[in-house]
Amino acid sequence: MKPNKTFALIGTVALTAALVTVLRTAPPVARAEEPKATDKTTVTYAKDVAPILYAQCASCHHPGEVAPFSLLSYQDAKKRASQLTAVTQSRFMPPWKADSHGEFLDERRLTDVQIATLKQWAAAGAPEGNPADLPAAPTFTAGWRLGTPDAVYQQPVYSVPAEGADVYQCFVIPTDYKEDRYVSAIEVRPGERAVVHHVIAYLDTTGEARKLDAADPAPGYTSYGGIGVTPSGGLGGWAPGNDARRLDDGVGILLPKGADIVLQVHYHPVGKAEKDQTKLGVYFAKGPVDKRVRIQAVIAPALRVPAGDAHYETGGSQAVPANVTVLGVMPHMHLLGHDMTVAARKPDGTQQPLVSVPDWDFNWQSTYMYKKPIELPQGTRIHLTAHYDNSVDNARNPSDPPKLVTWGEKTTDEMCIAFVFYTVDSEHLTKGIAATDVPDIGVGGKGSKMEKMMMLFDKNGDGKLDDAERTGMVQFLQDMMAKRAGKS
Questions:
Q1: What is the mean pLDDT of residues 281-296?
Q2: At what angle do helices 467-487 and 449-457 cross, to 10 degrees?
């Protein structure tokens, strides 16, 4: 049987380590005391606090970044000592939404001892300590977390109206490379974060996106549900809270020669007219690339979240088309999202947790990359389960009173996707062995089930789905799932 080419993997649910305590004697165990930072009389900024802030906070809290204040100096930290205690005690900061304990790279999670250290320091009056104990402060390239990019691409200035419907604007940016190149990382820098919902960097080698751009008098062209043409691949994307990081040596994302980057930017009007000019920094792989990174998605498209339902459940699954190695996953929902869990069931029936986000927050959409990538054999099935809160008690609910919410592109609509980054085990590009029958991006490419589904509902034959056509497709999927549920 041929592998399923709509492979949509996902995830990275953190494996929660279980601690089993065996009691051999009778006395009950007393409640554990609160962790103590240190036995020393005084905790100081220079020796104890600065290392924590530099490692876990400074990447956002430095000049020019998204955080509202810097935490690079003693004075910065001292005047916010009480605030640091409050937000770390509640684990509101640093933001890390996965229910994980050491499985992922760049994990922004403080230990109990680190949290106690900050509290003890604030309670002692936030002493500075000996400046000689202060570690070297981290350095940052202005505007770029990963340092100066090898190439920077920039869209034209786009004017976002104060009000109205969300806009999906696509900007075509030629690369003009004469040979295939491999990308180690991209970094997206929105020009005006307040109105940028998300950004996806698609690739087009056909020239069709250029034609759409030329036919639209505005900067770029508008397209919902994709870029209006079948993409030739993709470089990745950005959403609020998503941090860029480089791939390991030997793996990369393909940027075909002569490809156009089609930067799709989703704008959400916020009541004030804004101008945006988003930038895309590209970092190329520095050595030989043996494995091509592919991006796929597990989806639950037939969302229908009833008004007032505080625990609406949906899900989806996909079969793995080959022996693959999962590098990481990015869950995605909108404002009503409450939690998402992804797990793999292997052919022998064993379960492999991939990722769990028990407290979804639209403002912190991380890509969770594994410290140790997860190998999954062909025939594994990936299952996604998610819950939504469409009740009046959900402070993020955009509708008052709540109303029925279905799948859609707008911020006030909903989605349920887990984007998966993976490599194919049989592929060895350095030996001339390429995996040519495995999809590259999204939920399907040329000839995929998703493309055929779109063609079925593209009534006017313009190669994309307008609002009415998209509504028809979603309703069809919802009805199909309802029938299946009735038979089960």
A1: 93
A2: 120
